[in-house]
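Before our next group meeting I need something from you. Please put the record directly below this note.
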Amino acid sequence: MWMSVLPQVLIACAVLILPGLIISVALRFRGFSALALAPALTVGVVVITSTLAPFLKVRFGLLPVAAVAAALSLLGLWAARFRPSGPAATGLNPLRVPDVRGDLAALAGAVIAGGLLAVHSVHLIGSPQAISQTYDAVFHLNSVRFALDTGQASSLTLGAMTGGGAYPAGWNAVATLVAMATGASVPLAVNITSIVLAAVFWPLGCLLLARSVVGGRPAALLAAGIAAASLGAFPLLMMDFGVLYPNLLAISVLPSSVALAAACAGLTPGLVRRDLASILALLLALAGLIVAHPTTFMAWLTWTLPMVVTLVWRSAAALRRKQARARSYVLRLALPVAGYAVAFDLLWTNLRPPPEASFWGPYQSIPKAIGEAVTISPDGLALAWLVAPLVFLGLWACFQDRWQRVWIAGVFALFTYLFVVVSGFTKSETRDFLTGVWYNDSYRIAALLPLVAVLLVAVGVDWAGRRILAMRGRSKAIELALDGSPRWGRAGTAAYRSVGIAAIVLAAIALGQQGGLELEVEQGSRNYRLAADSPLVSTDELQLMKRLPQTVPENALLIDNPYTGAALSYALGERKSAQLHVMSYVSPEVQRIYDSIGNVTTDASVCQAVRAANAYYILDFGPVEVHGGDHTPAGLRNLAANPGVQLIDSQGEAKLYKVTACGN
C-alpha cells in the first residue's frame, strides 16, 4: 500500500531539500553539514516565497520557490566571499570543515533514525489516505485545499479562510508545496509531509547539532541517531495530539537553528568563524522557524539563553585574568548581549497566544512531573529505557572537561523546569508567565524535551568513549575488549571490531524501540483509524463526501455542523463548507440559515439568505462531535421533519439534504 506512493515521497524529499541544499552549498557549507542544513533553509525559502507571492501577484508554487532559492543562492555566493579578519580567520568552523569520517558517521546516524521513524510513522498513520481524527485536522486539511484553490499560502492571507487575521502558515505552505509537486490528494500530501518531517528533517537536524557539539566521533553520532528515533514525545506525539502539524514542522527544524547559534557563539569544538555567510544561514533558518510556529521560536530563545550566559561568564573570567584583548572583546560583546536581553524580554512578554487559548491546566503532582521530565517520559509515556540512563551520563559529562558543555545542562534544566511548571503547578500568574507562551499545554513542552535528550546522549557517549580509549594502554582487559586478540592480525581485528559495532548498534536499536516510543505508536494509530464510529469522519461519512462532486454543484456552499467533521467536505469532497474550521466566522446570511432553516417554508428571509449565499445543500452527520458536546445549530435540528428540505443522498447515518423551498 505504502510502496505505491514511494515515488511521491521521494519527490517530496527532493522538493523540500534541494532549495535549501543549493543555498547551503552557496554559503560554502560542505559535506553532511550542507545536507543537514538544507531542510531548515528550505523552510525559510518556502515561507519567504509564500509571504511575497500575494504582493507580487503571483501564485505560490514550485517556480516561485525555485526563483527565491536561486536569488538567495546568489546572495550566499556574495556573502561567502567575505572572510573574518584577525585570530578568527585561522579558526575552524565544525559546520564547514571537511571530515569524511565524521560525515559518514553522521549520515549513518541519520539513516538509522530516518529508517526507524519512517516505519513508525507509517504504522501510526496506517493508510496513505488516512486522516487524523482530531479537532485541528479540520483546519489543517482544509487550509491545504484552500491554498491549492487560491494559489496563496501566505501567513497574511490564509486566515481569511476562517474569517480571521494573520496565521503562522509555514506548515500549510510546505504541505501545499508537496501537494503541488506530487499531485497527491490533500490527505496523502499531508501524510507524506509528516513522514518527511519526522524521518528526514528531524534526524538530519539532530545529527547536525550533535556533530557541531561533539565533532565527528562515530560512536557519539550513531548514539544520537538511535536516540532521535527512540522517544515517543517527538516527532510522533505531534502527529497524534491536536493534531499539531505546525509544531511538527517547527520542532523538526529547531536543531539546525540551535546548531547555527551554538557555532556562531563559539560553543562548538575549535575556533569558529563569525562571518556574514553564517549569520545569513541563521537568519534564514529563523525566518522559517518563526513562521512555522512562533512558540518554537521561543523555544529557540530558551535554548540560546544558557549560551548567552556562558559567553558573559567567559568574558568576565577573561577580564579577571586580564587576558590580552579581553577588554575589547567584552566591549564588542556588550551591545549584542544587551540587545538580546531586551529582545528576549519583549518577545517573551508579547509573542504569546491570547489568554483564552491558554486554558490548559496541570494534570499531575510536582514530584511525578519531575520524574517524567528527567526520564524523558512525559504525559504518561513509558520510560525510555535506552535514552534515560544515557541522559544522566550526558549530564555528568557536561560538568567534566572544565565545564565546556555545562550550557547544555542548563538547557536541560530549563526545559525540565518548564515541563514541571506546566504539568504540575496549579493555575497562576506565574505559571501563565512561564508557560503561557506554549498555551500552558504540557504536550507542546513535552515535545521539546527530546532534542536536549538526544544531545545529552551524544555528549555522554562521547565522554565515555574518550575515557575508555584513554585507559586503553593501561588496561589489558579494555584493549582486548576493543581490539580482540593480537594473534588475529589486522584483518581479524577489523572483522572483530565490525561485528562488535554492529552488535552494539542492533542491541541499542532494539532497546530504544521499547517503552515510550512503542506506546506512542500504539496510541497515535488510534487517531488515524477509519471506522464506523470514528470521532471526526466515519466510514459512512467519508463515502458520502466522496460522492459530493456528483451530487452537489461545484460552486455551492454546504451548510453543516463543523464539530461533526462535515466541514472536511472541502478537503475530502471538493465542495466548500460554510465553515472551514470548527470555529469560523460566518456571514449574516449564513448565520440566518443556521438559526432559522427550520422555518424556511414560513419565513421569506431564510430563502433570501439561501439565495444570497448559494447555500442550497445541508450536510448532516448527526449529533456525534469530535470532542463530545452538542453544538448543533437550531436550524439543523430535526432536518428529517423539515418540509422545506429533501434528502438526496445518504450513507448510514450520514445524510445530504437539498433546500427545495427556495427554488433552484
The chain is about 60% helix and 5% strand. The longest strand covers residues 645-651. Confidence is low (pLDDT under 50) at residues 85-92. The longest helix spans residues 186-214.
